[in-house]
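task queued by scheduler; priority normal; single chain, no ligands, no partner chains; default sampling; output format set to structure tokens
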Amino acid sequence: MIFANGKLLPDSRRREVIADLETAVNEVRMGPRLEAETVIAAVDALGKRLAGGEFDQLLAQFLPANVTLDDLLPLLSRETIEAKLAAELGPDPFGDRPFPRTTARVLPLGTLLHIAPGNMPGLPVYTALEGLLTGNVNLLKLPHGDKGLSLAALRLLVEQEPRLAPYLYAFDLPSKEQGDLKALAALADGLVTWGSDRAILAARSLAPAGCKLIEWGHRLSFAYVSGYEDKSSELSSLAAHIIETGQRLCSSCQVIFLNTDRWEEGKAFCRDLLPYLEKAASLRPGRGAGAQAVLSGQTALLERIIEGRAKGEVLYPSKGCSVILRPDRELELSPMEGNVLVKLLPQEELLSTLRRQKGRLQTAGLICSPESREALTALLSQAGLTRITRAAAMSAAFPGESHDGESPLRRYLRIVDIES
């Protein structure tokens, strides 16, 4: 399906829509600028309708089990959006800024092509909303497996505020359709891409000269354990996070680092964690539990044995999950689906180890005693992490948070210097 100028259209109309798109976009950009208030009012009103239960049936159809209305509503309020604008762009984000002999005028970048990921429900709509807030026309390539959530959300948004219709286009477009993708990229002043190194490289090949590349690439996250406030609660929360996310998000825990260099302490931790992980898997049968998750962990270990990379490695399997103790100290991707890596990383080696993954670091879920939290938080910050949370909140969305340590709205604007 296609979403174009407020209407859902069959994919058979795709070439026709793309052929007429430059004329339609130019007409919009020659008109009055889309005001942020128009977007804020529409999103806030839609959020209130969601809170009132008006779309419960629709949410049940599209949202996965690990995403709830409580996760979404804080992001859809006027207060949150206004705070985001103020934090990223200042108290008067779109006002002229006078300088001697010149005035700096803040304007939209123009037209954004968003190549959205499929690892987090609602993210395609969220990236388009950021483009709307900055007054841009937004062309959205939907991810494989979106299952209609984004199209339904965009339709509701435009029904709430019809003035947004000419600023939103969405295409359920396979990546193999390179001709159509290049035609969309040719219209873009900025190409916003999310995903793996492979996805980033593919997007770079699409972007024509002069098109600004805005990359939100693959990131790695981990938990760091250095003591406890409440051991049972914290391990339970960490296990629930691992199972609920399937370890498929940039903020998902791939490795649990322990602040020790004693191998026996690592083995004891694995034995302690495994029952919590098994319980979490049993409560989320659609998330990692079952033979496939165990097979994933065992297959990963078998491959490493065959390749000669599993020396000293210990697998702790259980029903629907596993814990894998490895002797190296590298941050890496886990086998996922409830199969988590555990490694030893003394505090004094933390910064030098993590710096080997500079540019890829995102979230650290910190489990520690209260008296060491401040010092460890400072150390993790210095190492390059962009989010530091408690274990349960590693993948939680926080109002006003950055994208991997950057303010995205600034990247969707341009400055025009006008001589007085």
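post-processing summary
- Residues 104 and 417 are 5 Å apart (CA to CA).
- The radius of gyration is 23 Å.
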